[in-house]
Model the fold of this input.
Amino acid sequence: MTLLENKSGSTPAPREITTKPRLSDKIFRGVVTAGGLTSLVILGFILIFLAYQGYDVLKSQGFRFITGSTWQVITDDAGQIDLTQTKFGIGAMLIGTLICATIAVIIAVPISVLTALYLSFYAPSAVRKFMVALIDLMAAFPSVLFGIWGFFVLMPSAEYWGKLLHKYLGFIPFFTMEVPVFTRSPFVAGVVLAIMIIPIVTSISREIFGQTPLDRIQAAYALGATRWAMIKAVVIPYGRSGVVGGAMLGLGRAMGETVAVYTVLNIVYQVNWHVLIGAGGNVASMILLKFGEAGTGEIKALMAAGLVLFLLTLIVNSIADLIVKSSGAKGR
Amino acid sequence: MSTVMQPPKPSKPWLATPKQRITTASIYIASALMSFLVVAATPMKGKLAYFVVFFFASVIIDFILCFVQRGMASAKDAVARGVVTAGMTFAVLPILSILFEVVKRGYKGLHLSLFTNDMSVTSVNDPVANGGLLHAITGTIILVGIALIVAMPIGILTAVYLTEIRGKFAVPIKFLVQAMSGVPSIVAGLFILSAYVYPLTGTLSGFAGSLALMILMIPTIARTSEEVLLLIPSDLREAGVALGGTQWRTVALVVVPAAKSGLVTALILGIARVAGETAPLVLLTGGGEKVNPNPFSGPMGSLPLYIWKCFGQGTEESITRAWSGILVLLVIVLGLFITARFLSERKVTK
Done:
């Protein structure tokens, strides 16, 4: 007993119990929060600076900048760009962006979903491990590689597929053509983009399928379902909206792709709905193309085009993100 | 009377019996034969035709077989299996084709002086053995290195905020990081052009390129690090706090060391993400042909830009140079990727 008793006078004062963070913690929290908010700052700056640089052009062109399809620079005698007469309109390129990205999604989504199903429910575990690594690796391939591979290796085959489409499905308006020029068409660009977005759509779908509640899968098997019946009854209803989100994420990637599209597509400044004809474009590759020869005034127009592209991809990505997130939470 | 009980041999009823294996093999052989016959007999030609006929033949045979043996449900299952496998083949073919073609076309341009020479005295039509990509490799190392130095603290702090502090901005920041990962690379280039090059320096430089790469790198690092930090058991954090550590010391001395190899993986994946980025470098770095160690002045070459330029020049020699550049870039990316895999695998097994 005596051992535990302190002599009077040497009792330490009981420590004050507090939830107030110390100074070191305050600094720590401040620094980390600042670091965390950097992404907000960067995104905000992108918006502000592109809008600032593109303001003159956007103001003089108005809504025509998005709807118009002519890009005609008229300079006055001093060599300055005459903003009242110059026409900047990225409508044709916006439509081209949508066409290429849509073709890519149409091709990539079925392949990706099937691959994700294979990896989740069919593959033996050794094969699965190897293929997951392979597909992750593909996601890390640089876009210039896809572009040059697409140009030299894929394009001859893709042209041939285009000819087949024209021959057998030529009655569909998109596949008609007056002049048989199959080279460097939006269809070829779409195929290359499809290959580029397969990894991301596959990995998102796989993640979603992997979240399917195990008890439901086992319940389906216990009721005597075959593997396909189980997938149809359990996995697909559960993962449908997540796959839609993954597809939109792929769409966003495909819309912002620059180098690969620039390499395989014959960029012509016109609206071209006939996807097999070798003329088209997208906003990103147009910026790269015009940048080399652009003067200061035209560069401002390119900044404005970049702003439109930025907002477009931001919106698509945000919607996709919301869909993917909400699909994981809800059951059926 | 003692009989020695022989332990029963474990049977594996889920494995395919030899009979089933023979059946499967014969289905494939029959389909392959059929595809050769059909392609020979009809005007269809090409690899695609072989593939299509083989696919349909094997699916139909499988369908009929399953239908006869086990009925409709099983037959549908067989068709689904065929379709799913075909889809998977379409996803893997391009990867294998890319790897194969890059090696096949790239090795011709490989020579030892590739890593000791730059392109400053070599013209487009010179033989492939002249010139090299020293300037490109040093440029890429400098560009990516600076980008990494800036992006590493930001990315990891973002991840720490999302996992350790979980303040009121956590949800919006997570959303913004996701949004940032979708920023097209050319937009990042234009942004640096409008915010750094035009108002501040007026000239293109390597540093401007690094800034653009940094923007593209942050989301990858932040998201991977967040995943890694989430895997750290909260027991560790609680133990740190219970021992009297402040949050700062707990994070710095317990959580981050525990997640070290995972965080390194995140950095490596960030490097792999931007090592091949081309579009912003075309806008920002100027693309020199000489080794330039100073990122703040003068044009700076880089590997993706080297490939891009050689491809654009279009002569036979420069195309070969482009392919060998791709091969070098691919080897670098592959090496980074395998290192990252190795590190994260080791972490899991520990």
In short: The radius of gyration of chain B is 28 Å.
